Backbone:
């Protein structure tokens, strides 16, 4: 309908380098791209929806499903909670209010790729924007040396795949999964080479 805002969902995550409450390089890049290339000067024509998915049993954070739409919404929270997922969302909400873009932000708990697609189906945004590291399949592997009983690295190691429960889970598959399964158009924003950390798996 004429006059309705275009809904743009932006999936955001915490930094694997600095942890909470810092946003990942890819998340910030996706957000800035959305502002510069989609919203531009038409701040009243869009509403940004920020979703942060927390991995179960990793963050110890229970304040799920609450909606945050202004800086004031964060003021009543306990300090322990603020330094975690909601403080991550607070960064994006504050930035939106500085430039006058309507927004909402919330957290969910579960498998990020599954939850993002579920929330897309529930909220029905016009567009989903996700950041990605831009790693190839070989960069998603790591060398896993064998260690003997004394803690010494054995001469012959092996290759394995990252499968730890953290923000580094199955690197690259979240954006790929969303492109294939999200029920709306999806834009993936690859971080620039200048922003890539020494360890490209970091974000």
Residues:
């Amino acid at each position: 309908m004429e006059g309705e805002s275009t809904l743009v969902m932006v999936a955001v995550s915490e930094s694997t380098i600095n942890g909470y409450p810092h946003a990942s390089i890819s998340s910030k890049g996706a957000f800035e791209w959305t502002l510069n290339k989609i919203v531009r000067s038409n701040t009243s024509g869009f509403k940004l929806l920020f979703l942060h998915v927390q991995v179960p049993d990793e963050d110890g954070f229970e304040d799920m499903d609450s909606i945050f739409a202004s800086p004031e919404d964060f003021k009543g929270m306990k300090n322990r909670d603020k330094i975690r997922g909601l403080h991550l969302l607070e960064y994006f909400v504050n930035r939106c209010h500085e430039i006058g873009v309507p927004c909402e932000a919330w957290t969910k708990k579960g498998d990020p790729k599954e939850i993002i697609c579920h929330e897309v189906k529930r909220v029905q945004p016009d567009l989903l924007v996700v950041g990605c590291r831009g790693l190839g399949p070989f960069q998603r592997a790591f060398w896993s040396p064998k260690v003997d009983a004394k803690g010494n690295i054995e001469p012959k190691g092996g290759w394995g795949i990252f499968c730890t429960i953290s923000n580094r889970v199955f690197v690259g598959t979240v954006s790929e999964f969303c492109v294939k399964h999200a029920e709306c158009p999806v834009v993936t924003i690859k971080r620039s080479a200048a922003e890539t950390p020494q360890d490209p798996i970091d974000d």
Observations:
- The beta strands are 6-12, 14-15, 19-23, 46-54, 103-109, 127-132, 141-144, 158-161, 186-190.
- Residues 57 and 165 are 9 Å apart (CA to CA).
- Residues 78-82, 136-148, 151-171 have pLDDT under 50 and may be disordered.
